[in-house]
Amino acid sequence: MNDDPALRSLLRTWHPEPTPQPRFQEAVWDRIALASESRPSRLLRLARDWFLISLPRPAYASVLILACVLGGVAVAQKAAAKTEAARATTLRERYLASIDPITMAGRDPRYR
After folding, report:
1. How far is Cα 34 from Cα 42, in angstroms, rounded to an integer?
2. Cα angle 5-8-12, degrees, rounded to a multiple of 5
3. Phi-psi label, residue 36: left if phi above 0, alpha if psi -120 to 50, beta otherwise
4. pTM to 2 decimals?
5. pLDDT in tens, 49-81
6. For the range 8-16, what are the long-range contacts, defined as Cβ-Cβ under 8 Å and sequence gap of 24 or more?
7. How far is the C-alpha of 91 from the C-alpha of 108, rounded, in Å?
8. Cα–Cα distances in Å, from 13 out to 2, 4, 5, 16, 20?
9. Burial annotation 88-103 (CB, 10 A radius, 16+ → b, else e)
10. Cα separation of 59 and 57, whole Å?
11. How far is 2 from 10, CA to CA, in rounded Å?
12. What are φ and ψ of residue 97, in 5° steps?
């Protein structure tokens, strides 16, 4: 290390004051505006690249196909369960109506 006292003294008193470039603030705001405008396009570019480059790979494609098939099976199962529940309710109501004497009396002409 340099132990020159004159150099140390000079370095302690020296305070650089950089002069900003002309139109510095305007350039900063321009860069901020450019960065905020390009953010959505960057996301679109990433999505496009993933869709066109990564997705066609067999591993990704097979996982996507499997997810679609499993999702379709789950939706179909849910719809079938709902339909079956409605059918069971209808059958229950029909059975109860068929054994109810008051309902039968209304249908049978002998009981009118």
Report:
1. 12
2. 140
3. alpha
4. 0.43
5. 888 888 888 888 888 899 999 999 999 999 999
6. none
7. 21
8. 17, 15, 12, 10, 22
9. eeeeeeeeeeeeeeee
10. 6
11. 13
12. -65, -35
| Residue 56, phi-psi category: left (phi > 0), alpha (psi -120 to 50), beta (remainder) | alpha
The residue whose two tokens read 């029909």 is 94
- The one-letter amino acid code at 47 reads A
Q: Which residue has the higher pLDDT, 103 or 33?
A: 33
Residues in the chain: 112
Determine the residue type at 73. Answer: V
Return d(Cα 103, Cα 10) in angstroms, integer.
112
- What does the alpha-carbon distance between residue 70 and residue 75 come to, in Å, rounded to a whole number? 9
pLDDT reported for residue 105:
66
Could you give the residue ranges of the DSSP H alpha helices within the chain? Answer: 5-13, 24-49, 58-99, 101-107
